From TrEMBL:
<dbReference type="GO" id="GO:0005886">
    <property type="term" value="C:plasma membrane"/>
</dbReference>
<feature type="transmembrane region" description="Helical">
    <location>
        <begin position="213"/>
        <end position="238"/>
    </location>
</feature>
<feature type="transmembrane region" description="Helical">
    <location>
        <begin position="188"/>
        <end position="207"/>
    </location>
</feature>
<feature type="domain" description="EamA">
    <location>
        <begin position="15"/>
        <end position="143"/>
    </location>
</feature>
<keyword id="KW-0472">Membrane</keyword>
<protein>
    <submittedName>
        <fullName>DMT family transporter</fullName>
    </submittedName>
</protein>
<feature type="domain" description="EamA">
    <location>
        <begin position="158"/>
        <end position="290"/>
    </location>
</feature>
<feature type="transmembrane region" description="Helical">
    <location>
        <begin position="127"/>
        <end position="151"/>
    </location>
</feature>
<dbReference type="InterPro" id="IPR037185">
    <property type="entry name" value="EmrE-like"/>
</dbReference>
<keyword id="KW-1003">Cell membrane</keyword>
<feature type="transmembrane region" description="Helical">
    <location>
        <begin position="275"/>
        <end position="293"/>
    </location>
</feature>
<feature type="transmembrane region" description="Helical">
    <location>
        <begin position="41"/>
        <end position="61"/>
    </location>
</feature>
<dbReference type="Pfam" id="PF00892">
    <property type="entry name" value="EamA"/>
</dbReference>
<keyword id="KW-0812">Transmembrane</keyword>
<keyword id="KW-1133">Transmembrane helix</keyword>
<dbReference type="InterPro" id="IPR050638">
    <property type="entry name" value="AA-Vitamin_Transporters"/>
</dbReference>
<feature type="transmembrane region" description="Helical">
    <location>
        <begin position="101"/>
        <end position="120"/>
    </location>
</feature>
Amino acid sequence: MAPNTHQGSSLLVFLCLAGAMALWGSAFIAIKIALNDIPPFALIFLRLILGSVFFLAFWRVSFREVVASKDRWLLLLMSIFEPCLYFLFETKALMYTTASQAGVVFAFLPILILVFSYILHREKPSFAQVIGGVIAVIGVVILCLSGSPSADASSPAFGNFLELLAMASAAVYTVLLKRLSGTYSPFFLAAVQSFTGAIFFLPFGIYDFAQGVTIGATSAIAVIYLGLIVTAGAYTLFNVGISKTSVAQGAMYFNLVPIFTIIFSMAFLGETISLAQLASMALVVLGVLLGLAPSRQRAIEAA
């Protein structure tokens, strides 16, 4: 029974984390569609409000946690790092740099997660995870650099620095989430993030809407998808997955986001893929699989 239980848990982790990455990858397409009508901060506010409404609908059924006083500041800090600081830095970053350059910076998120995990939790990655992470990062960098040219960047160095701050925020969030996931349900943690983010971006959203916003039908569908499916679904799936695995292994999955983004771009935006991008995608998958391979000691324990 033990091996079957372990395999079932591994499958659940894979489905949850891969599903979260697929949703986050699809979010870039939905955001691109919605931004045709909606200013950036108004869009963030709307998706967080819709996510909050979704969680409120299940409040009486799902939320029975009693928050310990020592965890309140950790919950607040986790939510401040993501979605608050993460969305703020990334939105501003894309105003100064290109999407392709931001994608290169995004490739360093798994490494930052491993670094912060070691600093805060002394969780040391295995040799296979380090090698797999490096291979996947190389693949993501090649994948981003081999894409089609984007609009000119007004200040790429500043924009890339902001994107790096966004990745650092996401890394700290992941480590804090792992610390809290053993005490509180993934659904509750995702709801706290959504509520905190909606409050944080309320003044930004009011300012954008005050300038005048007209939302078309296509953009409205994109916003609903971002709020109810991506914001609520992706964070819940990620929180479930990371609660059942190590931070180091969970970090490997972030390398899949650019791949899912390209797949959805081909499917919904009619974009094409080059041979170099196809080869780099295979390199990313190889790195992720290597990083997810159980170490010798874990394999012995599982057996």
